Amino acid sequence: MMIANPRYSPLLLKLQIVIDSMTACIAITYIALRRYFSFLVDGPLLLNQTQKKLEKANIELQDLNSKLESTILQRTIELSKANQELEAIASERKQMIATLNRSNAFLKAQQEAGRDGILVVDEKMQVTFYNQNFQHIWHLPEALVQEGDNQKILTLVVAQLINQEEFMNKVKYLHQNPEVKTHDELLLKDGRIIDRYTAPIHALDGTYYGRIFFFRNVTERRTMEEELRQSKEFLRLLIDVMPQAIAWKDRNSVFLGCNQRFATIAGLTTPEEIIGKTDYDLAWKREEADFLRDWDARVINSNQAQLHIVTTQHHADGKLAWSDICKLPLRDKENQVIGMLAISEDITERKAASEALQASQELLKQKNLELEATLKKLQHAQTQLIQSEKMSALGQLVAGIAHEINNPVNFIYGNIPHVTQYIQDLMHLLECYEEEYPNPSPALIYQKDEIDYDYLLADLPKLLESMTIGADRIREIVLSLRTFSRLDEAAMKAVNIHEGINSTLLLLQNRLKIKTGVEIQIIKNYEDLPSVECYAGQLNQVFMNLLANALDALELETDNGNPKIEINTYLKEGKHIVITITDNGSGIPEFAQAHIFDPFFTTKPVGKGTGLGLSISYQIVVYKHEGILQFSSVPGRTEFYIEIPLKQNVDEKCKRQLPATS
Predict the structure, then answer these.
(1) Dihedral sign for Cα atoms in the order 314, 318, 322, 328
(2) Which of 77-91, 103-117, 223-237, 585-599 shows the lowest mean pLDDT across its residues?
(3) Does residue 75 sit in the same domain as residue 132?
(4) Which burial class, exposed, middle or buried, applies to 112 when counting CB atoms under 10 A from its CB (0-12, 13-18, 19+)?
(5) How many domains, in total, are found in the chain?
(6) DSSP state letters, 287-298
(7) What is the extent of the structural domain holding 289?
């Protein structure tokens, strides 16, 4: 019988071939013996017949041999084909095993490379797998991991939790409800917060195989979120104390937020109520809302700020007020407009004063030169009042920030020496332990390698030293902010004039590198000066204006390879102090030098300057301090000269009237 089915093994095929061969041999032998005995009995008479039969037998034997060879050949072909099929199946299985090993390797790498600690349990809530991150998160000893005792692992995990009973109840609940997915957080006794997510494991046919847990240490993220929340609250506080009404919108002019002042004007109780509203939902009239949204569209479409839009606006209390509105585009990192910021200032009183002033000017045209001089005095007083209000608000903001920063910085700075001493004591204790116990256990050696013990001991003092330097730097900045604001020194008093100059330079530190990348050199030549009796805050304002103008001039110089500002102070005749501020910029144009101290005169581009800085500085030095403010300028050198007396004659100043500036 032929074997054509490849399912038979090669051994059976070979056995059948052997049996067929033996059968053929027996048949041939039988035929031969039968012919032989017949020949002996019948004798020669049968020889011819025997020869014929022998020939016939030979023919049959040849046929039988041919059939046998054909059968053997066919069986050999079938055997070869079966071997090829078996080799193909073996190769396929080998490839499948390699693919499975590759998939397992990728799965293992993914499980170990992720940030999450992974735990897999079967349908009986018995642990079947966990990765190294799970071991590190739960601080599982290596010996316990190798032992693989599920109950001990669970006991060690539960011991680290604050709410142990709640955890065990949750484990029972998940065991009783295999289809449930949960996401919660676990609080540990060491202060860590662990994020836990679990989901059931199902096969394609829906068979439940157990549950997988993901654990992640989110302590740092929660801390950052809390710090961000506090920063947002502090920013909200800063925005709410601003005298302007502030709001911000998205590209569709839908409000995203505002400060308390804007909410009150709009008829809302809290700033949060404005989120999702438009101008049509607030206290303004329809035509006012149309006007505001038209300006919103201009800002968003042009990507350009629209400043000082003066218009009337109805408030929620029924008041019709004049508002000075500035609208600025909000951009993302790709400089694409994502929204708009609106800043509104109530200028009703200022507008009324301006209108009254215009009416007065019509009348003053008919009066003499004395009334014209009085009008100029009023103009100077008005500009000084505006600038004083702005500087007062800035001073309050700077002083508030300095005060808020000062307390936590002092706390940190005061505790750094104690922390340093404690750490030194602990390090000394560790050294003593190493001397007493020079042969630590493998677990301690592993832990030392894990935390990089030697590097930690070497780097920790450097870290504390860096923290001390940083705290010192913050204290210096806070001191400079308080020195510059001088809110507690509104009256005239004796101060160190160099402190005011240095605090102003510190506030302008970020502008000492111009666009070309060259840093502006500050040269200070200070003499040893006595304390100067002055209005410190106002004099700091003068330093700010003059130094800012010098920096503006140097920023315009693209070919100046050595930009510098030189500040000199010295005592003159024992009664006056002199401060000179010199820069090597291009100088003041000749046409502008005659008007440099005039109010609202500026050579800067529109929107870059108000023209009040030097005018206010002149009034502070000359009229407030009975001093001298002069300048000299040629291409490549501009110098401002300030001279004020060491002591002020207050009585004479009260009697003296403020003259007009020519």
Answers:
(1) negative
(2) 103-117
(3) no
(4) exposed
(5) 4
(6) HHHHHHHHHHHH
(7) 236-364
